[in-house]
Design a protein that fits this description.
Blueprint lengths: L6 E3 L2 E3 L2 E3 L9 H9 L3 E5 L22 H27 L4 E7 L5 H11 L6 E5 L6 H8 L2 E6 L2 H10 L11 E4 L6 E3 L13 H14 L7 E4 L20 E5 L13 H7 L7 E4 L7 E5 L2 H11 L1 E3 L10 E5 L4 E5 L1 H12 L4 E4 L4 E5 L1 H12 L33 H9 L32 H9 L3
Parallel strand pairs: 3-11, 4-5, 5-6, 6-7, 7-8, 8-10, 10-11
Antiparallel strand pairs: 1-2, 9-13, 12-13, 14-18, 15-16, 17-18
């Protein structure tokens, strides 16, 4: 195994090992501080991060506003306070010279306001911003305004090309690196484009090489590329290290830091990670963001799969094969189904899935009355955690603060479930993000006999190549 030497990133030399940011409240100041203290780049999530009261207790994020817009303002205030709190924790642990990054999602509600508020309130504590889940054109401007480095997360050379030409070329000096996130292997939200097949993964080497070639055209040959998604043992990536064709490469670890002493996730969650089998992480498109995402296929995801399978197209008038009347809603409004779909619908109703719910695509899904009440309650309670939400039809753009589309019951409230699982909620009835290599916890001898390392021990292990 080649020696893992420091590389220059963000104006300093660091180990080419980056902690992947995981929100909500999963990558926090404790994990980021410990990772940075071990010599790498620590990353805390500034997506609805936890803040604390005077006694050090986590402040629950409870929303009291009567309208979505009022609750959205509360969410932004929570986000800023939490980001500042986690930056302080990370810096206290890591010390003054370590590298601390804050991770945000561009499509999160009030993203620019939150990160500007965090950088203002935590001046001198944060060295860089990583940002993905969308096209963060304004990231460079924010970084320049606060004198920190920026690290866009992209999944193709084409995406970086668009970002560079539109805005990043104006703040070249603050570009610390580019994160290539493999859309078929990484956990959380993935940057699959409409031209890419979620069922046909492409090897990362050629895609990263195209990114490097694109970067060299812009004079960025010495700017590191951070490989994210699918990284487990570095010996498996040995031909990437010190490879002149690829240039300087660092590696991001998102899933492995979940199973550390410092990781704030529940013991039940940690135990579940050690039991996963190949194929237990599902790449799916249920997220209210509209992006594909990868998570453990538990009861939560299985219910979404089944909910989406109980779906038929309808028309408002008898058209073509849509010749059979069907009643929908408390007023019994008539819609029209094909004979085959009508038979399926009646069978679902007989099984207890007696509540048909309309989708934006002129289809009906069939759920139990209890699930229908839960979906409607979650939609009403929306706090605007995304810039635009498929599930609730919220948009942070006024004056009406709506996407203009019907709320989509095939999705879910992502803020509700991520807050719950991050604070000891059920690991079966919540969304549990993970990378597709998470099954390797079970077979990696490092974790034998239930061993859970500290972050320092994990980094030391990674440096051996394994």
């Amino acid at each position: 195994m080649k020696t893992i030497n420091p590389i220059r990133m963000g104006g300093v030399e660091v180990l080419p090992l980056v902690e992947g940011g995981k929100g909500v409240a999963v990558s926090n100041g404790q994990t980021a501080g410990a990772w940075a203290a071990a010599g790498g780049v620590g990353t805390f999530s500034a997506v609805n991060a936890d803040s604390y009261d005077a006694e050090g207790r986590t402040i629950p994020q409870i929303y009291r506003g009567r309208t979505r817009s009022e609750r959205h303002e509360e969410l932004i205030a929570y986000g800023i306070a939490g980001g500042i709190a986690q930056a302080r924790v990370a810096r206290d642990i890591a010390g003054p010279k370590a590298r601390i990054h804050a991770n945000i999602l561009w499509e999160m509600g009030g993203a620019e306001r939150v990160i500007r508020g965090v950088l203002e309130g935590a001046k001198g504590l944060i060295n860089g911003i990583t940002c993905g889940a969308g096209m963060p054109y304004r990231l460079a401007e924010i970084a320049r305004d606060f004198g920190v480095y920026y690290y866009p997360i992209v999944s193709s050379a084409r995406a970086f090309n668009a970002l560079w030409r539109r805005s990043y070329h104006r703040a070249k000096e603050w570009l610390g690196g580019v994160v290539y996130e493999d859309p078929w292997l990484a956990g959380g939200h993935n940057g699959l484009s409409n031209s890419e097949d979620p069922k046909k993964p492409e090897p990362p080497y050629e895609r990263v090489l195209k990114l490097r070639q694109q970067m060299r055209e812009f004079g960025l040959g010495a700017t590191p590329i951070i490989m994210a998604g699918g990284v487990w043992w570095l010996e498996e990536w040995e031909d990437w290290i010190d490879n002149p064709e690829l240039g300087p490469i660092a590696f991001q670890f998102g899933t492995r830091p979940l199973l550390t002493k410092e990781s704030p996730i529940s013991d039940a969650w940690k135990k579940r990670l050690t039991e996963l089998e190949p194929g237990d992480v599902l790449l799916q498109n249920f997220s209210p963001t509209g992006f594909y995402s990868s998570a453990v296929r538990n009861e939560f995801l299985r219910e979404l799969e089944e909910r989406n399978e109980r779906q038929v197209a309808y028309t408002l008038e008898p058209v073509g094969e849509h010749t059979v009347a069907f009643s929908v809603g408390p007023r019994g409004r008539t819609v029209w189904l094909t004979p085959g779909d009508h038979a399926r619908a009646e069978a679902w109703v007989a099984q207890g899935f007696s509540e048909p719910m309309r989708t934006p695509d002129s289809t009906l899904i069939f759920v139990t009355p209890e699930k229908a009440r839960e979906i409607r309650a979650d939609q009403v309670a929306c706090m605007g955690c995304l810039s635009a939400c498929r599930f609730s039809n919220w948009s942070q753009q006024g004056p009406h603060y709506t996407t203009g589309k019907k709320a989509d019951p095939r999705s879910f409230c992502i803020q509700k479930t991520l807050q719950d699982i991050a604070h000891n909620g059920s690991i079966e009835r919540n969304l549990m993000f993970a990378g597709h290599n998470a099954f390797r916890f079970k077979t990696d001898p490092f974790y034998s006999n239930g061993f859970i390392p500290t972050v320092k021990q994990l980094v030391e292990r990674i440096l051996t190549g394994r």
